[in-house]
Amino acid sequence: MTLDITAPAEELESAVIITAPSEELDSAVIITDKVDIEALAAVYRRVHAADMHLVDHSTPTVEERLRATAEADGFVAALGFVGGELVGTVMGCPLPPETLWWRDLTDVRDPELAVEWEGRTFAVVEAFVLSEHRRHRLGVRMMSDLLEDRREERISLAVTETNVRVWRALQRLRFQHVGDLVPFAGWRSHRMLVRDLPLSSSR
């Protein structure tokens, strides 16, 4: 779980190209269910170069994590490109009733929070973009385009407790902190966040 490909666009099956604003004609977001794991892993390692020594980024391996997400039922990704170069992604999948997403969640006030049914939750499992391209607001655009047509009731994602910048940004988007958990043994604690869909909802 991380918040903060390089197949050409024409090779990405089931893709929808979202045109960039006129002032950002060199950037684009593609929605697809087919991704290049090796290319994504290379971008991930550039984004997290300073932290790759942490267990969070090494066990499971980046490739194993990305591949597990890409093989999940209902997987979909938003890929960000600048000048034709892959620079980031937001990717996830619907949570099935038997999901382990909420395992070991602490401080749960609502016992129904971790109960899943078909169509309840879309989970954003990975989200990262190269820092030198953040001026294009690709993170926001990828998240928005990925979730625009989702039919689930809510979205959930996890943020490392030390990632204050992203945590504050998500609070402004009305994400609610519903508890904490450690996704894998040895990882840092993550804040588990939830908000209603659609993103335009005022609930």
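(ticket continues) Second input and output from the same batch:
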Amino acid sequence: MRALEKGRLLFVDAQMAVAIDVQLAVGLRPQNLSALNWQRHFLEVDGPRGRLLLIIPAAEMKSGKDEFSAEIPSDVARRLRWYRRTILTRLGADPNGDLFVTAKRIRKNQRTLTSQILKIIKRRLGVHMTAHQFRHVLGNSYLDANPNDTETARLLLDMPGPRPPASMWAPRAGVPVVPTMSSSSNRGRD
């Protein structure tokens, strides 16, 4: 942790690791990712070591119709809790407040957060991938595992429906992706 005290770069790396972790787990729209606030959006159902739910009110969703709720995988929840307890505390930020803050402890705006995600992925992996493209990866992964369940993918990603299955694919750099993913407010619904 002494390395964290040496400079902003490692602080940003820790933030980006958590942001990417969340994106890989739930694939939020960048607007919702940058606005994550522990008190407002997370619920520790079984206490501080138990299940962690992410709940985004309908008013904060693009459609404005349905809230988004998802259980955070236990490994991601453990890292989120560590980040709050260790990184945010060392920065002097409120561990119960905004997750992604600047060195001045104010919430990062969407443009800054998404730019930093793009840069760290490019630097570490040599791939150009935006924060929004995590939604495409999650949709594509679901369809790879469940090729006949395009309806669930459409509901999970709040795509306008109904569409023929073939129209859900669009080639991007030779990789099939789910093209229009505006909001995941229906994820986790029956």
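Agent notes: The two ends are 43 Å apart (CA to CA). The longest strand covers residues 52-56. Closing as not reproducible unless the customer responds.
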